[in-house]
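Researcher: Re-running this chain for the archive, since the previous output was lost when a drive failed. Same request as before.
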Amino acid sequence: MRPGKPSRAVKLGLGENWPQFVLLMLVNAFVGGMVGLERTVVPLIGREEFHITSTTLVTAFIVSFGVVKAFANLLTGHLADVHGRKALLVIGWLIGVPVPFMIGWGPSWGWIVAANVLLGINQGLAWSTTVIMKVDLVGPNSRGLAVGLNEFAGYLAVGVTAFLSGYIAQRHGLRPAPFYLGIVYVALGLALSSFLVRDTRGYVAAESSVHPEPVKEVRFWDVFRRTSWGDRNLFAASQAGLVNNLNDGMSWGLFPLFFAGFGLAVERIGVLKAIYPAVWGVVQTLTGPLSDRWGRKGLIVSGMWVQAAGLAVTALTRTFTWWLLGSVLLGLGTAMVNPTLIASVSDASHPTWRARSLGVYRFWRDMGYAIGGLAAGLIADVLGVPAAIAGAGLVTLLSGCVVAIAMRQTPLRHGQGRDLGQA
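Model: Regenerated structure tokens:
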């Protein structure tokens, strides 16, 4: 990346850049809302409208979403470093335009799966870019706060939209009424991104100009190797991110079917599906900045174990009240983990290759959607849905143990990022 010369007017910090920061939070709320459209109703559409009896086939839309989003993240990080941020954000919204129409009016399940390919690209480009741009704006001292606020906006919108879609579906049917929301989200997100959002490459240049390491050309493969397995902290973060989204993909595909199997109405399923991302979104506003003060490792380890507890409660109980508790625990644990992982990756990355490192991390993280959706469907078809949920809980517990062993107790000094030759 050639960041160019920083403008004298460019200042890093949340207070200095709050109008653009708030605008990007709003844009990311619309990005999150696009995913929230599917959290309650799409698995039920597969089972009730298209009469798909195989849980593996029902969860195929999550697999397509996860694989495509993972590779889109990988590409976004590289292109954002080379070509800038705003163009990718706008392209992401353009690709998302057909999604609500394909899901709301598609004549077969294949249309739903294809729509999720486009949704994966939309999310990979748009969500990744808003994260990168917020980190650019605030500089090295408030990354946890920046990520926490970004994820708060996105996942609160996931939760609110999951509830609204369930509420609308209960009264007007599974299709197409809930997907009118998606048309509004696409229109507003595209308009704001095109006309009001500004690129943040000048902020990268400002940070790079005072960075202790010299700016040098870095190959993409070196960043991929370092982020995936070459550094203990980044390896620990990448595997934890994968398991974190494995849980999300599993809950996305299986929880509506699990709850409906006990006779729960669509509107109440919507409440359970909304609580998890809503708790996740709100609590991140606390856990993000706390990770700036307390360090990353403790929040990540304990958060993975709280997630495991939430999954165990869900799998082993059969009443709405216990399921509500399980959803709260799952959301709380995810809130402890999600912004902290992104901030920990940013800590270890030089500004000139930070976007690529975040892209690699998000590649592994979002492969968890595909792995979680596929594994959950297969296990559910063979052993039942409770076994699939419990299995995810066990994997999450073990992932927390990996972080406890592999991640260094003392995080890197914010913004430093060691040389790529070091492990």
